[in-house]
Amino acid sequence: MKAIVTRMIANLHKAPSELSELIDEALYGMTVNILEDVDANWVRVQTTYRYEGYCKKEYLLIDETRTDAWLNEATFVIKQNFADILIKPKIQSTKVTTLVKGSIVRFLERDDLEAEWAAIGLPTGEIGYARKHWIQERTVEKNRSEDELRENIVQTALSYLNTPYRWGGKSPVGIDCSGLCSMAYLLNGIIIYRDAKIMDGFPIKEIPLEEIKKGDLLYFPGHIAMYLGDEQYVHSSLGGNEVSINSLNENHLNYRKDLATTITAIGSFFAPERVHP
Fold this sequence. Notes:
Elements: E1 2-5, E2 9-13, E3 22-27, E4 31-37, E5 42-46, E6 52-56, E7 60-62, H1 64-73, E8 76-78, E9 82-86, E10 95-100, E11 104-108, E12 117-121, E13 127-131, E14 135-137, H2 146-158, E15 170-171, E16 174-175, H3 177-186, E17 205-207, E18 217-220, E19 223-229, E20 232-237, E21 242-247, H4 257-260, E22 265-268
Antiparallel strand pairs: 1-4, 1-7, 2-3, 4-5, 5-6, 8-11, 8-14, 9-10, 11-12, 12-13, 15-16, 17-22, 18-19, 18-22, 19-20, 20-21
Helix pairs in contact: 2-3
């Protein structure tokens, strides 16, 4: 059975209890597969990137047919940190809901709207309105050169600067290390594994450290960061409490020896071959 997330942020827990560890978040409009109907309140779900956790049923629209249609029709994503979806295309109107960056919506073609507004279809069947420049197509990696795509991925990651660290988070409300890197790629139309390791079946491949370029990923024990170039990287650090920039250069003010000296792998979406030891 499939379902659509209908809450701004749906928590995924390690066990079917709100007191259990938060391991991930599913954002509005994302879809999940239901693996187990646990009880009247909880289901065990799997995300599109094969992460599993327990989610409250009230956060989901559980309907196979509507989810299949949504997967085909909902081809746009919110790129604004927070976006009010309004009942009318004017700023003074009442909001239907508020969505965070990464939420998935339908874009409805309308000829009667002013250029700044877009009609938004929601999985509930409701229609709302948002600023057109707050949404983008989900498959933005198409027709981009490698340099353009690398730059876009880096700029997307940097758009989360100063976001508070949240274990299991992946929104502007709070985000963790793998949440940051996976969302930077997702917002550019690429699904990578949402964890601090390279996983078979996903497009990140290992490369030598000397080949690293901006947009590539640095892996540490239990941690992941994105390389910016010039020996700098952006990451969401439990120790730093927020998304910040640090350096691999020991002469730089932002140098972190604990990370610079414990790199376990470099991963790249752009590598043609996997590096074998």
